[in-house]
Amino acid sequence: MAGFTRGFTGGARRGADQRLPPGQYDTGSGWPVLSAELTPQVDLDAWTMSIDGLVEKPTTWDWPGIHTLPGSSYFGDIHCVTTWTKFDTTFSGISVDSLLQVARPTPEATHVMATSTTGYTTNLPIEDITGGKAWIVWEFDGKPLTAEHGGPVRMLVPHLYFWKSAKWITRITLMDHDEQGFWERNGYHDRGDPWLEQRYQGDA
Amino acid sequence: MSEVEAVASSWTTGTVREIERFGDSYVKLRLEVANRHDHVPGQHYVVRLRAPDGYTAQRSYSVASDPADPLIELMVECLPRGEVSSFLHEVAEVGDELEVRGPIGRWFVWGGTVPSICVAGGSGVVPFVSMMRYARRMGTESALTVVASAQTRVRLPYVEDLEEFGALIALTRENHVDGTGAERVAAHIYPDELAGLSNGVERAYVCGSAGFVSFVGRSLGEAGVRSDVVRVEQFGPTG
Fold it and tell me: Are A18 and A77 in contact (CB under 8 A)?
């Protein structure tokens, strides 16, 4: 393996913010759009959010129904595996904890699969979506979340790489085992912690 | 669902064997990769630069070469203030060693047989060049239809390869004369063009900026291509 790269000082990015995980750069005011599929048009009148699988009370909320739960916001940074980080974002919606308080996971539940209206999936350990670490959001910076960024409703798990924050979320399924989702089957890491640089299968 | 075997890639050395610069827009790198695993057309590599104090910057680039090529070919668009692309464009020389990792991605890949239409905007042609070269070698060109769009001919990387393959070149700011002498008037890709070309395809690949992908997605829909057979790769910032 090569040592350092001849002629590369990284001078342009020197003094990088301590909030940047390794290998990430500050995308500034931009917000790149990345997805594997075409952007669907989701009609809020027909939209539902379900919690199912290993729960005592499988539950489905519609758009007015989910607004009866207490609101919750995230203020902080998001990190994409393609190496951009966006600082100081504000997302609003509800905490995933609020949904799970209603549906009540059974003791066997250890992992979840998040599913989008497009069929996109991503897997997460239950600890990564409980305890105030994950949201279902429909506003970004106080405005409705646009379709290209996962609107009208997406998941938000900001302490993991952003492919875990499933766009166009419609369902979270509790499971007693781990199972790979879309990008995880296609070469990306099962957990995706940006501070550990868990980008691809094979990373520690 | 994947046509590609899972390979857990790790960082290795890519030695620059050939380098060619195209104005201020593109730089073509041909790398000899140590402990290389063959890629499948459509996959990408990550290039990582390392400063003497350990600071690193990395970006992903689609592979343009055929899997049988002894070297890995990357065509890198030089972005304004692009930390990695500007280094590759301005500093990199033959003989330099870069940290590379790949091949990566098992979704935006073509295994060589599924009848497909590929639609590219600008540097989005790169993964399709690998597919075209592979199809040429395997004799499966008839399974691959390529459409490439750019503002002008000189701004389209691999334009000669695309023309030779019989790709539809859709230029938006100047007319284009194809190999048969027919002239296409400057315009964005329109649904009628796609409808004719997407007859019988089982899959569509779209690669380009977010705006381009969104535009082509709508046009493919109007041309009768189902959204669930469309695979997308996007790049670039949005406003």
Answer: no
Q: Which of B13, B57, B105 lies closest to A186 in CB terms?
A: B105
* Residues B145, B140: Cα–Cα separation, whole Å: 11
Whether B227 and A38 lie within 8 Å, measured CB to CB = yes
Tokens, residue B185: 């008037």
pTM attached to this predicted model: 0.88
Going by C-beta distance under 8 Å and a sequence separation of 6 or more, which residues neighbour residue A128? A134, A157, A159, A160, A164, A191
- The tokens of B84 are what? 């990695």
Identity of the residue in A13, A39, A201 whose CB atom sits nearest the CB atom of B6? A201
- Taking the CA of residue B129 and the nearest CA in chain A, the distance in Å comes to 20
- Give me the interface pTM, i.e. the ipTM: 0.78
**Alpha carbon distance B140, B138 (integer Å):** 5
Give me the tens of pLDDT residue by residue for chain A, a chain 204 residues long.
Answer: 558 999 998 865 655 678 999 889 888 888 888 888 888 999 999 999 999 999 999 999 999 999 999 999 999 999 999 899 999 999 999 999 999 999 999 999 999 999 999 999 999 999 999 999 999 999 999 999 999 999 999 999 999 999 999 999 999 999 999 999 999 998 899 999 999 999 998 888
Q: Is the peptide bond before B103 cis (omega within 30 degrees of 0)?
A: yes
Peptide bond before residue A144 is cis, with ω within 30 degrees of 0: no
| Nearest-angstrom CA–CA distance, B196 and B208 | 21
Cβ distance of A32 and B210 shorter than 8 Å: yes
